[in-house]
Amino acid sequence: MDAISIIYIAFFLTGIACFAILRPILAVAMVYFAGLLFLPVSYYPAMQTHFAGTTALSPYWIITTALPSDALISKAWIASLAALTGAILFDGKSLLRFRPTLMDMPMLGWCLWPVAQTLFVEANPAGWQSSLYLGGVWAIPWFLGRAYYRDREGQLVLVDILIGLTLLLVPFALIEGISGLRLYDPLYGAHPFAAVGAERYIGYRPLIMFEDGNQYGLWIGCVAVLAIWRYRATPAEDGKRTKAWIAIILFLLAIASQSIGAIFLMLSGIAALYFSQFLHHLRKIAIPGLVLLLLGATVYVSGVIPLRSLAKETAVGQTVLSVLRSSGRSSLSWRISQDEKTIPVIRENLVAGSGQWDWWTELGRRPWGLPLLLAGQFGLIGLLLALGSPVAAILSRWFRQPEETSISERREDILPPTFAISIVVIIAATDALLNAFIFLPALVLAASLVVRQKAEEN
Asked: How would you classify residue 328: left for phi > 0, otherwise alpha for psi between -120 and 50, otherwise beta?
């Protein structure tokens, strides 16, 4: 038995044991987040050659753990399974009280779509394998978020544990950021993205146990937003100074990651926290904005608007490219160009998808944004189903009637946790437009936003 299998099994058993000493609401979050933070990512294939002996500087054939590929076991799957198994064994009665709503249907449909997809195309992995994988990576965190963290107390537990476990990364981030060492290699073996984007303006961007350096930067940025909210929402007598230091540490860690996109999104989230009194007007434009977003994503995937040509052949486009190159951020234009090259292949099976995890092989490259990666494999149907439940959860909070809101959430001096959680979920979704390595806690966070039903309160 190889080392990674041993580690996965040991974590699974240890995770279940946590339920014997911790309350389920604590154990679920501890096990799930710890698995995402510290487990080896997956069983990586040999990196020297792949696809007919092609050698690549960037191992483009490695797919994000958010989607099924030739590697159907990953840290995201193991972490979810350990948390669910412990909850079933030690708190099955609470899980049985869960009642699904219409908001859960898109998530269910997304996880079952690969099986239905086989009616239209030949799938690889097999439809049932992809459904099983998506069920573990997407549906289980969603279900656990709905079952345990659907009120203010649960949301505070979720946020506090996520912040606390992320703080454990600080010494490792300092080591890697200063020295350029990669701790993953001696512990778990060679990491295919260890050198990709590692050198920054000053020092190095840490990788630690993440899938990619971009995912590390996004994780720290999202948690920094939550930590700043936690500081603002904490009364002075309840350890506000300690929470201030935690927020400062995580904010500085995010800046030190030098992930420009993640830093921009983090600063936008912080601005939303401090100017929240102006954001209630967003409810008036939320649905039109969502429609425009979905239409824009559809147009982008379809290739109707040739962004690559506009960038190279128009004065505005050339100016933007020039600014990006002079600032050293040409990676953004490169990613968009990579995505644009894959659109003709996506359009061949635009609605139902190709069913193939490696549908981009003939191009010798894959898109770097999750929506295109997902659409190529599962089509627009899969893309809309995957977005359905998280989007519905956010809108359910935005349009919640005042009389349905608790007294603590109506207090003007305290932003509710649902507000900060919504911001982080939106940040994660926005970043996924150009990155496939997503902030996986966004799934359980989004699930906690679903308005509690009367049947679940009894």
From this structure: left
